[in-house]
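#struct-help
A.M.: can someone run this one for me? Single chain, 231 residues.
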Amino acid sequence: MSKMEVIVLNERDAKMAEAYGADRLELVSAIGEGGLTPSYGVIKRIVNCVNIPVMVMIRPHSHSFVYQKEEWEAIREDIKIVRELGAAGIVFGALTEEGSVDFSILEMAVKEAGSMSITFHRAIDESQPLEIYKSLCNSLLKINQVLTSGGKPNVMEGLNTLRNLVEDSVNGPEKPVIMPGSGLDINNIEFIHETLQAPYYHFGSGVRTNGDFRHSINGNILQKIKEIVGG
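D.P.: on it. Structure tokens below:
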């Protein structure tokens, strides 16, 4: 039995996603830019309006996943406030200019997050997913899940790499869970789930009317996906 994480932008999204079977939410703003840190007011309201875990995007800008040392204080403050507002976790990733994990920034983020859950996001797809995943595992940092499309624009194109990642993630204690995401929808999830058997799947526009973030979450679609992956 697998679970669903759903991207939400506001309170209405959050309530709809929970009502129709989402197991966890990823809260973002500026989805057109790939998702940035939402306002504190939005975080507070959504954490308080649902009973399922809320993961909050920590991303101060959209032009890269490379952060300068002077940006760290703002990132740290965001994580601190997200923790105080009662969110279940954060969604974060940081790379060096060369495309490897920026462990100096990541370690500080993990420390500030404390007991919160941590997702390393699709920054992994900007580089070499298998190598990045192995480096995360070897670092011994507490990363709970890794969101990835297998280094390709979408999950269907990254299936071979994702299959290897999922297999690797179940071999060995306490490795981060691989969570496929990007391009998942009602038309491909059955095939993808049969192929990968991943424990979690990440849905965005694929659970919305007309596959568009400008429209609301479609409860019927979400329910059908729940039956496929959670049955």
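A.M.: thanks! The first helix runs from residue 11 to 19.
D.P.: also worth noting: The first strand starts at residue 3 and ends at 8.
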